[in-house]
Amino acid sequence: MAKIIVVTSGKGGVGKTTSSAAIGTGLALKGYKTAIIDFDIGLRNLDLIMGCERRVVYDFVNVINGEANLNQALIKDKRVEKLFILPASQTRDKDALTREGVERVLNELKDKFDFIICDSPAGIEAGAMMALYFADEAIVTTNPEVSSVRDSDRILGILQSKSKRAEDGLEPVKEHLLLTRYNPSRVAAGEMLSVEDVQEILAIDLLGVIPESTAVLNASNSGQPVVLDGESDAGQAYNDAINRLLGEIVDFRFLNVEKKGILKRIFGG
Amino acid sequence: MSEQTFELKGNLFTLSVLHLFSVDITQLRKELDEKISQAPKFFIGAPIVINLAKLHDTNVDFATLKQTLIDLQLNPVGICNGTEQQNEAAKAVKLSVLNYSKDNAKPVQPKQNNTEVVEVEKEVYLPPQIVQTTVRSGQQIYAKNRDLIVLGAVSHGAEVIADGNIHIYGTLRGRAIAGAQGYDEAAIYCQRLEAELVSINGSYWISDSLQGELWGKAAQVKQKNDSLEITALVKG
Ligand SMILES: Nc1ncnc2c1ncn2[C@@H]1O[C@H](COP(=O)(O)OP(=O)(O)O)[C@@H](O)[C@H]1O
Ligand SMILES: [Mg+2]
Question: Where is ATP bound in this sequence (chain A) (predicted)?
Fold first, then answer.
């Protein structure tokens, strides 16, 4: 039975889709059969970041409406065995998702997969509620700034009260904090909240800290999830986060301003 | 299946209550204006209930009163504790007549006959309402007729209300309203005071007024002389 994990935030542009792609790909690389679902109906970002936009024929909404079956709509990744993407529709609006429809698709996927990653749209409206409703775990993606932390706090309240687990009185949704776009030098300058500041306010387990990195932009421009770039700081930080998600204890990296080595100082870097 | 266009549900809201001590509306306008200028954000558009308890059966010019409050960018919604006459006059200018439990206590009637009636009052203990987690932004908790204990924090944008005391073992960043039904000995206790608003029995302070010595410290908030008093939680 698959675990359903929602990647959510409240605020837009914090790195949900980047993180969904990286974590989903990382789990599949470790041998877990993984599906990433794009819940951001109308925008369709995930397929671009995964580099499979030209292979989209049917989408999530088609499956919900019974116009295609799951096997037709799931796109198998060409690089990583066991990785599948269910793209969003670009032509429909957010109301195209019904709770019954989403539940049916998730139930069908659950039997065949180990992990289902739900890439949530921003906001706290219908689309975001749909993405988190059936979740077993939530990766609350947060940037180290006040407005993003507030929105994450709001989402945590919704997970506690409006998710299926909450409504059914089951064990609560397991909450993880993923701090993204972390810029240690701006934190040191007092322009951004520190890891400790954010943890103090949100008070949930820290899954990972992803540094602000040019590797992310390069990765999304070339349609390669950033974990595939094992040399990059962001790729490594995502990999650490995935190991923690799987229960390992991993030290945190990339939290402090890197001191430039003597060679870098001479030659620039 | 036809979609319903609405649903009617009861709910609890916190409203500011204007306790009117005089019918001098000119004076009221002056004093209110001053008060509002201290925290305009808090007041603009705020729904206001006018408590007439202290006016006994004086005639009130509700039309002018209402307009005055509107001019000050408040939103008068109703009155409470009026006499029958006052209630009728208020209704005539579309102010609702609200029930307010406090101050409503009827004077005890003298016994009609000589038979001795022994009334045994059953002591009812209402255990506190306990919240095991952090109260998150957008959430509201109301502990009716009892104390509220929050083991986590109260986030910015969250609101905790109790008719009794409020104990917060984490940081209070949002709003806390104790003694909501008029219990003036209610207190708010918190491990760390960084509140947006604290209120006890209708007296409130917003964050600006709280940022003194005990900001960020363990503190208790009580009502004193119709205002608030903040003291350290741990006596050294
Ligand atoms: N760690 C990072 N470093 C630099 N840029 C990032 C990082 N994470 C995300 N971004 C950039 O931020 C933007 C928003 O990311 P995206 O994943 O689409 O956010 P969301 O899905 O939350 O709206 C994108 O341009 C992305 O490349
Ligand atoms: Mg996105």
Answer: 11-18
For chain A, list the domains and their CATH numbers. 3-265 (3.40.50.300)
Domains with residue ranges and CATH for chain B: 16-97 (3.30.70.260), 129-232 (2.160.20.70)
> Distance between CA A97 and CA B218 in Å, rounded?
47
- For A162, nearest residue in chain B (alpha carbons): B139
The alpha-carbon gap from A120 to the nearest alpha carbon of chain B, in Å, equals 19
Ligand 2 centroid – CA A9 distance (Å): 10
pLDDT number for residue B226? 85
Can you tell me the distance from the alpha carbon of A29 to that of A110, in angstroms, rounded to the nearest whole number?
19
CA A116, distance to chain mean position in Å, is 11
What ipTM does this complex have?
A: 0.80
- Count CB neighbours of B99 within 10 A: 7
Task: Name the closest residue on chain A to residue B132, using Cα atoms.
Answer: A160
The C-alpha of B175 sits at a distance from chain A's nearest C-alpha, in angstroms, of 15
Per-residue confidence (pLDDT) for residue B21, from 0 to 100? 87
pLDDT digits (tens, 9 = 90+) for A149-159: 999 999 999 99
The answer to whether B176 and B158 are in contact (CB under 8 A) is no
Residues of A in contact with B157 (CB under 8 A): 150, 153-154
